[in-house]
Design a protein that fits this description.
This protein is an all-alpha fold. 77% of the residues lie in helices and 0% in strands.
């Protein structure tokens, strides 16, 4: 498969991931994450198509250079942050004033472009640079 196909698939995986998470406020995002988490943490992980695709590329092409490590680290941090926030809000019911304010925050539309623009670029860098 050509390089641009792999990068385009990364873009599509990120768009799919972003589309199910999209909400106008942080409360909406957390509710969507909670719905998947409540079913199973595996459903939540399956919803992170960009993460799964990056892991696939890393294993398929034996990549362990800095761009793929950065992409995997950022995605892992994102997923575990969401899981911890869902557990804090919905499982333990620990909503402090800071969390309450965060949930009311409106999400600007440009924020949803970060994943589809960042991770395909990291995939391109990972595939075109030599391994560490």
């Amino acid at each position: 498969m050509e390089l641009w196909h792999l990068v385009a698939l990364s873009f599509l995986a990120e768009v799919a991931e972003t589309s199910w998470q999209y909400a106008p406020s942080m409360q909406g995002v957390m509710e969507k994450v909670w719905r998947l988490y409540r079913r199973s943490v595996f459903w939540l992980l399956a919803g992170h198509t960009g993460y799964l695709y990056i892991l696939y590329l890393s294993l398929r092409y034996d990549l362990l250079n800095w761009p793929i490590v950065v992409a995997i680290a950022l995605k892992t941090l994102d997923i575990f942050t969401k899981i911890e926030m869902v557990r804090k809000i919905y499982v333990r019911g620990e909503i402090d004033p800071v969390t309450e304010e965060m949930l009311r925050m409106q999400m600007p539309p440009w924020l949803w472009l970060i994943g589809p623009l960042t991770y395909p670029w990291l995939v391109w860098l990972a595939l075109t640079h030599a391994a560490v």
